[in-house]
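stuck on whats below:

***
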Amino acid sequence: MKSTLYKFLLICFAILIAVLTCSVTGNTKQSGVLIIQDERPQMDVLVKFLTENGELPVKIIEQQSLPEQLSEYKAVIVFIHRDLHEQTERAIIDYTKAGGRLIALHHSISSKKAENKFYFDFLGMQLNKGPMEDGGYAWKASNWTLVNLNTKHYITNHKIKWNKQVSYTSSDQPSVEKIYPCINLKDDSEVFINHRFTDGRQKTILCGLIYSDKKSGKTYMQDRGAWTKKQGKGTIVYLMPGHCVSDYQNENIAQMVLNAVNWQNKS
């Protein structure tokens, strides 16, 4: 009798330890957000919004301070204007493929990153050289319009106010001109033209962009303003806005980043 009771108590104790261990592990894993950046002013505005509105613990670092493991973070935000170090490149690729959430902001897709060995293949991107009007990649310091092409997606619609509308024709031709919700970015913003996809239909398009070039008089409408992509066990989210402080002072843009962190991708 005593032996049976003793075994029963041991089993109960073992189960209790297992439950407590799982609870602690579940609460500590992927609890916060890591921002890897090389331009602090914009990220300071974003961090303030994320901590106040998302109640998220956010750590902001430069590439030189990259931790050995990224797996503890719920999401990793990349905001790197200049060189993407190979160590960082490999770390964010491994993190994403293992099940992480990579949020690439603005110039995370730019000509400097085309020099990296693995990064653009990982994203499914290509930037061609040559004149913009002939399809070459270009960046323009200018106001521009972000167009909501996916009006039911959590990232671009949860707590976001699309207060204006615009006529837009998708660059996925042949397409029909329609009226879509939009947000106008200010004159100190920056837009990228002729981002090329190399992965067919693997991306889910969230937003398009409208840019009117004063020099040529041509208006560009391209389905490249925001998108998501499954990569391994994880997900990439790209948001083109974010060049300047005023982009993140627009709470709709900051909310998109917060939504990208919290989005439950069940696909």
Notes: The CA atoms of residues 83 and 112 lie 6 Å apart. The longest helix spans residues 2-28. Residues 12-28 have pLDDT under 50 and may be disordered.
